[in-house]
Amino acid sequence: MRFISTWVHGVLDYVVGIFLLFAPRVFGFQNGGSEDRIFVFLGVATLIYSLLTRYELGLFKILRFRTHLTLDIINGALLAMSPWVFGFVERVWAPHLIIGLFELGVVLLTQPHTAETGLQRIGR
Q1: Better-predicted residue by pLDDT, 80 or 116
Q2: In the predicted model, what is the mean pLDDT of residues 1-30?
Q3: To pair with 24 at 20 to 30 A between CA atoms, which of 78, 97, 107, 116?
């Protein structure tokens, strides 16, 4: 059951994007290594593609919402796997895995089209 609206998803995008920027400091592993750079990189990426998405909170409305959801899947999966892929699992892994899985869960629970797109589909 998909109960997260595109508007709520947009709010979560900006909250998560900003949180990712500060997560290394919040979790105490801000050392310039790949464990904190992945958070900053994905936070910036999330904010950029959110601004470019055709949904209620997109500023430039270039990307389709389904493309945005695909980027969210890539973002969440990369974040969740990053401790093992980039070899810092001995130092820290839980924040990456938990937040990555949260992002994937949000995608699975989000309605796949905006209200505007839904109206176009039924001929209005």
Answers
A1: 80
A2: 95
A3: 107
